[in-house]
Amino acid sequence: MDTPPAVELHVHVEGTLEPELILELAERRGVALPYADLDDLRARYAFTDLPHFLDLYYANMAVLCTAEDFAAITAAYLERAAAGGVRHVELFVDPQAHLARGVPLEAVLEGVSGALADAPSGMTTGLIPCFLRDRPATEAAEVLDSLVRSSTPLLGIGLDSAEVGHPPAQFAEVYARARAEGLHLVAHAGEEGPASYVRDALDVLGVERVDHGIRSLDDPALVRRLAEEAVPLTVCPFSNVRLRTVDTLADHPLPRMLDAGLAVSVHSDDPAYFGGYVDDNHRAVADTLALTPDQVRTLADNAVEAAFVDDARRVELRAEVAAWAGA
Ligand SMILES: Nc1ncnc2[nH]cnc12
Ligand SMILES: [Zn+2]
């Protein structure tokens, strides 16, 4: 299938770190990694669940040391994204994962935002730092202070990392502050965690978009509400299969979510770890789940409507999807 022009709303920059680049950066920076070679590293990509994946994801960040490294991974991602038809990207970054290793916030922001400013022609971009929900909310509050004091343009804030046992409500004050700063609000919820976390992300944090949200299906009243309020859900099919929240792609609940009238769109999450980028995810769900052309168009339209862009850009993105659908 020819994939639609993509609006990528759920991708972690650290999750675009391809194995080859991990080894290359390790050599360049003199970082010792516990892998014999590329095959040994790749052999560790069979994950049992989200925490198991996160162990490797955080460990591999050891190779990201300087602003140049952050610029390099961001530029490599943008080049791959453009080749896959991405027209607009809202990129997640995990500042605390780097601060905890002694990398200054300025190096992270300068590297990533510098590369975003040099995105391929015609692609629009934005940056969304995420707080790690398995670290204290007091730390998130301090990082938010530093973020709003920095000169880096930010689109919003997000919440990620190990979900179960880390309910959204702990971050109510952080989100209230971010809202007062005029930032957009999103959060991972209902990936591995229960449907109640999705409800709390909406009611307590006031998020405008829910990342994943697939466990909402366990709660029919919540599904009705999400449909009525057209709450965008950024669904990541390859991620769900590789982190075993869904058995196989053929079992993915995306068709049920579409049938329930949910504002779902398809994204990649951590493409270097989960087997593909946003275009690969679109192609695979369309084929494996036998989606109709109208359903694929709906996914693309939903992503455009969920993007944090101004009216003029939304009109352009709508037109690009319409031109693709009519071609
Ligand atoms: N799928 C995911 N869920 C939660 N936190 C993440 N950080 C990177 N990928 C993530
Ligand atoms: Zn994610």
UniProtKB/TrEMBL annotation:
Binding residue positions for substrate: D270
What binding details are noted for the cofactor? Answer: Binds 1 zinc ion per subunit.
Which EC number(s) does UniProt give?
A: 3.5.4.2
Q: Reaction(s) catalyzed by this protein?
A: adenine + H2O + H(+) = hypoxanthine + NH4(+)
* Superkingdom as given in the UniProt entry: Bacteria
Extract the GO molecular function terms from the UniProt entry.
hydrolase activity
- Which residue positions are annotated as catalytic? E191
Q: Coiled-coil ranges per the record? A: none
- Keyword Methyltransferase among record annotations: no
Cofactor(s) needed by this chain: Zn(2+)
For this protein, the record's InterPro entries field holds: A_deaminase_dom (IPR001365), ADE (IPR028892), Ado/ade_deaminase (IPR006330), Metal_Hydrolase (IPR032466)
Q: Where is the Adenosine deaminase domain?
A: 5-324
Its function, per the record, reads:
Catalyzes the hydrolytic deamination of adenine to hypoxanthine. Plays an important role in the purine salvage pathway and in nitrogen catabolism.
Question: To which protein family does this belong?
Answer: Belongs to the metallo-dependent hydrolases superfamily. Adenosine and AMP deaminases family. Adenine deaminase type 2 subfamily.
Q: What is this protein called?
A: Adenine deaminase
Organism of provenance = Actinomycetospora endophytica
